[in-house]
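Appendix B. One record, verbatim.
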Amino acid sequence: MSTGPLGDKPHPSRGATKDGPAGGELVARVLDETWADPPGFFGWFCAINHKTIAKRFLVTCLVFFAMGGLLAVAMRIQLSRPGNTIMGPDLYNQVFSMHGTNMMFLFAVPVMQAVAIYLIPLMLGTRSVAFPRMNAYAYWIFLFGGVMIWIAFFVNTGPEAGWFSYVPLAGPEYSPGKRQDFWAQMITFTEVSALLEAVVIICTVLKMRAPGMTINRIPLYVWAMLVTAFMILFAMPAVALASSMLIMDRLVATHFFNPAEGGDALLWQHLFWFFGHPEVYMIFLPGLGFISAIIPTFARRPLYGYTAMVLSVIATGFLAFGLWVHHMFATNVPELGKTFFTAASLMIAIPTAIQIYCWIATLWTGRLNFKTPLLYVLSFFFILIIGGMTGLMLASVSLDSQVHDSYFVVAHLHYVLLGGAVFPLFGALYYWYPKFVGRLMSERLGQWSFWLMFVGFNVTFFPMHLMGMKGMPRRIYTYPAEMGWGDLNLVASLGSVVLFVGILLTLVNSVLSARRGLRAGPDPWGAGTLEWATESPPRTANFPVIPVVHGRDPLWQGVPAGQPAAVSGLAADVREVLTSTVAEARPDSRTVFPEPSPWPFLAALATTVFFIGSIFSPWAIVWGSVPVAITLIAWFWPTRRESAHELALEKTP
């Protein structure tokens, strides 16, 4: 494998193409044809291009986000005045549970992975993600799981025990019927999808970076997603195991969580929160990565303290696994044990504080360009500090015992998740929208949307701190006027409407800008990372030639004199990619990637039948495994074309 300015070459089976500008354009067209998904209706189900799958993932997540937001507004309307009867207790339980389940499992983690699947190959200078068919399969599994739980909700079979489904409330004695069974299987769908995407991200980052992108030149956003992917790999099996144990308790009369038969109800909380608290950081760390990508661009200088930032992200990932019991301070966990988890809950603020100081130093020494993405980032500092301070308060066993299960905790949760993830996510959507669509969003509508969201968010959730201090418990569908919570609830409900309008305005902005927005060149913001070296939107193959990286901000630093700018030697008429070494990113090998195929979609369908069937009969596990096995065998069975490409590659020096 050589490095130089010649670009890619055709496969030996096709002969040579011209060099020079005309030849380069011809190679680019051949590459686009090679890496394109099949056209037409049938081709829609065969697509495996990472940008296609990422866009589907992103749109699906945003649809779920909007539906969850409507549920939130419905809850706020119900609680806006004492004694409201818009919803009864049963419907409210389903709405409350669906809102939390939807936001945590169908939006927060998947949307971060969706953005990563689109951007990471572009940031790393490669043409695809690792395991592209598995990437497509993960999307279909996620989609079918989300559709399943929403259909169950619409037919009055939605979950009713909260997004955390505590036992025994979620067990067979207190939740008969199939409501919690659908919830438990939805967990299986989403966790399988998330685990597969984590493997895709890890392998892409570690083995598919452009030559020269050493371990200390990886963009900070990619670092954040790499740590997040490893966290998913270690945390999500816990909740998948817990949900499987729950559904077996309900369907085949096991007694994992039944104390009367030797089980332990507290085991559910340990398993769930061993996943549940790292999940907060699986959502939070990608948000920090967005901020680390946006601030240098709009401060017009490289980020301060790269090494400290990387170590802080890694430290956050490690520490996140050591504080799950702070969700359980009201249980009978030994008091000495609680003190260790208090210490860990306080300690995890340190790496985040280091990152905040590095961002402030970058902003302080830069020349700020106050565009919409930067406004969302700056709001993060205000909102997250409030959420972080209340988090430190809840780390105290004595205070947590007083406000546990109150609206104070609801306020803290939303300040951390919306402030630490959703506001940076919206900033990222405005920032990378030109790369997705090829046009800029309206700056005027963007700023209106930001201020409506910022004001609406604080008007909605800040009064909830006061409600909690006044003793208002969460998970109640109504309350008497004598409790004195009515005025604060009315303010919060009005704020939720303002917040929803602000979010809706971003949707309107994105739709209008897709047709009328100013056309964006490759790098409309003047950024320094590699994704801005491609066209907007990128070509099918991402890069006509694979770049060679010479610094942390390749577009700002350029190519030193006498150094190679690109890689040559890759075939243009087959899906050939370059793999590199883990630490030094030296060219390692050439690999032929699979062609588009309908089998990931068919395998996802078979898996869906397998999962849903097991809700109604244990025999579905036996008979449902047959179509799953058939589709997986067909998926991995090599075609003659793929075998011929592999043989030609082996014979090519």
